[in-house]
Specification:
Layout: E1 4-10, H1 13-22, H2 29-38, E2 39-44, E3 63-66, E4 71-77, H3 78-86, E5 96-98, E6 101-103, E7 112-113, H4 115-118, E8 126-133
Antiparallel strand pairs: 1-2, 1-8, 2-7, 3-4, 4-8, 5-6
């Protein structure tokens, strides 16, 4: 198992519908800019990292839609995302050798965060977490 790739976006029906209708292969530069304008954070986990944010499903704070065997889309309050990003996320699987990089148990997972967009959001806002299983 290689882990998961996460992308968190603000939920915008018009933009999401546009991007889903067109399909990634045919996105224009304008479509790519629309996608980036909604992206709050992204990160990858390696190894046997916990499947976040499913632990919040039992608390009815998260909804999940499994698009296919490798992709899930969850909707979570921004406050849960901020809480998750504010804790050190550490790789908890075996050592992974990738091109030009070694990931060892305990290494920090460093998310890319769009701080400017994040601070303009309300903590109660619902955001989309697009998660791909990289196995």
């Amino acid at each position: 198992m290689l882990g998961y790739n996460y992308t968190v976006k603000r939920f915008d029906v018009a933009i999401n519908t546009r991007l889903e209708t067109v399909g990634y292969r045919w996105w224009t530069e304008k479509d790519k800019e629309l996608y980036r304008s909604l992206t709050l954070a992204s990160w990858s986990t390696a190894g046997y990292s916990p499947r976040w944010p499913e632990k919040h499903l039992e608390e009815d704070l998260v909804t999940a839609d499994h698009k296919n065997i490798l992709q899930s889309v969850c909707r979570v309050p921004l406050s849960i995302l901020v809480q998750h990003l504010s804790h050190d996320m550490k790789h908890d699987g075996p050592v992974i050798l990738t091109e030009g990089k070694i990931i060892e148990r305990g290494d920090l997972i460093r998310p890319k965060i769009n701080h400017e967009l994040l601070i303009r959001c309300d903590l109660s806002e619902i955001v989309e977490v697009d998660r791909w299983d990289m196995s």
